[in-house]
Amino acid sequence: MRQLVLVTFLASAVLSGCKKTQESTSSAPDYKAQAELLAKKFIITDGHIDLPYRLAEEGHMTSGELPDLSELVNGNFDYVKASEGGLDAPFMSIYIPASLQKKSGASKALADSLITMVEQITTTFPKHFALASGPSDVQRNFENGLVSLPMGMENGSGIEDDLENVKYFFDRGIRYVTLTHSKDNLICDSSYDPSRTWNGLSPFGREVVKEMNAQGIMVDISHVSDSTFYQVMAMTNVPCIASHSSVRKFTPGFERNMSDDMIRKLAANNGVIQINFGSTFLLHKSRLKYDTLKEVKKEFMAQNPGASDSVWSVYENEWMESNDFFADVKDATDHIDHVKNLVGIDYVAFGSDYDGVGNSLPTRLKTTADYPKLIEELLIRGYSEEDIEKICNKNVFRVWNAVLTAAGKN
């Protein structure tokens, strides 16, 4: 009898243990599923996607024909990838290479052509894409199942030397201007250029910033020198953005990213830093290996004269993989964490630089289909749904609305 009781007790204990294990397993949060739901529930903005210039480089601007962006295509962005990732408002980068700055009229002409290309995307695929002049347009497009294509000009050289072009480009749909790119221009100094032509803003550049405030164009301080940044902060009367910059703490000496003091100043301005996903923006080791990669490319081209960009790209990606080059989605989240802990949740957003940083994108963050993986990592780290919605759209919308309202255009 005692043996029977003991057997019964042990069986009960085993069943009880199994039940508790099942309950524990079933009650564990399914962050992946939750992230995928939130990516569809919330509007996701991205401050910088280089689709237009990529298409131009592929010859589509010259031919006047576009690839079918409603389907899967090469590159980081198309409608299928955007839909899978929940991306609703990618700012199309109207990128102007610094090489055009010495040719009168060339920068403005390219800007006009790329803007026309974005317009053509929306008219060619009206069931998938639409233009957006402000957050209210994005909201309406979202409700209609359309991906919004707001535009930002990367490199203010498109303004040339004519202040009236600020209004001209607002009327053409430009909603932010990155003041410069890889070289000093007529507006200000670049973080990449050691010349320091103006020691910050030029006299013309100060007028450009004022006019951008007056017209309702967001001032983008990505790419500018530190001196330029501080001078902009001292004079602007509306919030500013860093459309695709990351945190310098993780990349010491890389002026293209923002220092903690700069992030504090941007937050005091009520602005927002939009984290760049490129591995060289996220990790110091990737920056160091990128310098090595430049030499690898020289050697590769010497050994393979006439090799196409696509052939080099395959070799480059293999080299990156074998040399532990890539950051991970967790590293991008570390940058978001740092901004949140430094100044608060209201001052950080996404600015991927998709289609602009080549093969250097992190593991698990390779295309616009991957935002749920970043949201999942935020959930794992304890971010609330309210926090995530701010990162996805509310922080950017706050700045965008403030700039339009100050200009009387909202």
Gist of the model:
This protein has 17 helices and 10 strands. The protein has helices at residues 2-27, 31-41, 51-57, 60-63, 79-85, 106-124, 135-143, 164-171, 203-215, 226-235, 260-268, 279-282, 284-303, 309-322, 329-343, 371-380, 385-406; strands at 44-49, 87-95, 129-130, 147-148, 151-154, 174-178, 218-220, 241-242, 272-275, 348-350.
Fold topology:
Blueprint: H1 2-27, H2 31-41, E1 44-49, H3 51-57, H4 60-63, H5 79-85, E2 87-95, H6 106-124, E3 129-130, H7 135-143, E4 147-148, E5 151-154, H8 164-171, E6 174-178, H9 203-215, E7 218-220, H10 226-235, E8 241-242, H11 260-268, E9 272-275, H12 279-282, H13 284-303, H14 309-322, H15 329-343, E10 348-350, H16 371-380, H17 385-406
Parallel strand pairs: 1-2, 2-5, 3-4, 5-6, 6-7, 8-9, 9-10
Helix pairs in contact: 2-16, 13-14, 15-16
Description:
The chain is α/β, with parallel strands linked by helices and 410 residues long. It folds into two domains: 30-283 and 330-406, Metal-dependent hydrolases (TIM Barrel), CATH 3.20.20.140; 286-326, no CATH class. It is 51% helix and 10% strand. The chain contains 17 helices and ten strands. It has a five-stranded parallel sheet, with helices on both faces. It has a three-stranded parallel sheet with strand order 8-9-10. Strand 6 (174-178), helix 9 (203-215) and strand 7 form a beta-alpha-beta unit. The protein is globular and about 55 Å long. The relative contact order is 0.13.
Features:
single chain; 410 residues; alpha/beta; TIM Barrel; 2 domains; 5-stranded parallel beta sheet; 3-stranded parallel beta sheet; 17 helices; 10 strands; disordered N terminus
